[in-house]
Write a structure and sequence with these properties.
The complex is a heterodimer of chains A (113) and B (111).
Chain A (H helix, E strand, L loop, with lengths): L4 E3 L2 E4 L5 E6 L6 E8 L3 E9 L2 E5 L6 E5 L5 E5 L8 E8 L8 E2 L3 E5 L1
Chain B lengths: L3 E3 L4 E4 L4 E7 L6 E7 L6 E7 L2 E5 L2 E6 L4 E6 L8 E8 L7 E2 L3 E6 L1
Parallel strand pairs in B: 2-11
Antiparallel strand pairs in B: 1-3, 3-8, 4-5, 4-9, 6-7, 7-8, 9-10, 9-11
Classes of the chains: A mainly beta (113), B mainly beta (111).
Amino acid sequence: EAGVTQSPTHLIKTRGQQATLRCSPISGHTSVYWYQQALGLGLQFLLWYDEGEERNRGNFPPRFSGRQFPNYSSELNVNALELEDSALYLCASSLRLNQNIQYFGAGTRLSVL
Amino acid sequence: QKEVEQDPGPLSVPEGAIVSLNCTYSNSAFQYFMWYRQYSRKGPELLMYTYSSGNKEDGRFTAQVDKSSKYISLFIRDSQPSDSATYLCAMSDQAGTALIFGKGTTLSVSS
């Protein structure tokens, strides 16, 4: 069974540009979570989607947004990129009935120059 | 005070040693506790999941939760070089909310 897949693996952007990151959850999982792992800060919760709806968001500015598609895949968009947005962005998925057990993808490493 | 505190290490041990990794937390509402292992340039891999207090064992790994002390531990017996990774504790107060992570402890097991 395929795990959580994320694309692209690496993304290089310049300040002010927009970045789009993609995530496909494990088959049967309806919840998708996005986390940011910046150097020295640990994993920080960004967004949670379930059944196509945004259910919760972390303490990040509105230029971090996303959506979940009918097939439960998800997209994270970061607008007006800043240098400090450089980080590993991790997507996780879970079953609706066991939402604390989250399985992670390998991440997208975003570098903002 | 941060919600979850975890000693970043690095922790270096010889092969075969027993490793103890720990996290403390401040939010008494936390009741779901996880340990993840993250290899370099990879995503976190779920190792152990515990609800409320108590112990859970899986092979060489044992997770302990002491809610009265707000303290959780992961023990690794007979450590192997392949255990060299960063270990992250994570917790939440209810199903479906965000996981709150420690910053991770880097473990190195030498052969």
